[in-house]
UniProtKB/TrEMBL annotation:
Quaternary structure, from the entry: The complex comprises the extracytoplasmic solute receptor protein and the two transmembrane proteins.
Source lineage: Bacteria, Pseudomonadati, Pseudomonadota, Alphaproteobacteria, Rhodobacterales
Keyword annotations from UniProtKB, A to Z: Cell inner membrane, Cell membrane, Membrane, Transmembrane, Transmembrane helix, Transport
Identification of the protein by name: TRAP transporter small permease protein
GO biological process: C4-dicarboxylate transport
Pfam families: DctQ
PANTHER family (UniProt xref): 2,3-DIKETO-L-GULONATE TRAP TRANSPORTER SMALL PERMEASE PROTEIN YIAM, TRAP TRANSPORTER SMALL PERMEASE PROTEIN
Length: 167
């Protein structure tokens, strides 16, 4: 399988593959954790204390580590119902629009989560049952959504200048 970014931005190409690998490991760990939790709960009547918190936080990591890879591979869910009616120019325009809107939305989302991360760090926010610090998971959201926005912006530039970098 060829990587959609190619050699244009090698560090993102390498980083998103590593991040997707980490996301797969987190997801596998979550599956083992759920299986162990079910065995503990139903076979031994001893549920894992704080299991839901662990799964919620692991879910944040799994999603944030996999979003950049899904973006570079163009693997997000999309509906192509009108693609035939729009034609090549219409599809290019809608691709440009969804990427541009995405960059703007991700800018505000990332900015908001930077503030949340700093607040959670300053006030030492923790989860209810296990007292796990929350700020690293907010930082994961900043990282994942920020990289997602960078990739979308790069895709906009490459769609405008398909033969090479702008002069």
């Amino acid at each position: 399988m060829t990587h959609k970014l190619g050699a244009r931005l090698k560090w993102i190409s390498r980083a998103d593959i590593w991040l997707a690998t980490i996301a797969c490991m987190v997801l596998a760990g979550m599956m083992v954790f759920v299986f162990a939790g079910a065995i503990m709960r139903y076979a031994f009547n001893a549920p894992i204390h704080g299991g839901n918190e662990v799964l919620e936080l692991a879910s944040v990591a799994a999603v944030m580590f996999s979003v950049p890879y899904c973006t570079t591979q163009d693997a997000h869910v999309r509906i192509d119902l009108l693609d035939g009616a729009l034609g090549r120019i219409g599809r290019a325009l809608t691709d440009f629009m969804y990427r541009a809107i995405g960059v703007v939305v991700l800018w505000f989302l990332t900015k908001s989560y930077i503030d949340r991360t700093l607040d959670a760090y300053e006030f030492e926010d923790v989860t209810n049952m296990l007292d796990i610090q929350i700020w690293p998971f907010y930082a994961l959201i900043v990282f994942g959504m920020g990289l997602y926005g960078v990739i979308l912006a790069a895709q906009i530039v490459w769609s405008l200048f398909p033969k090479g970098t702008p002069s």
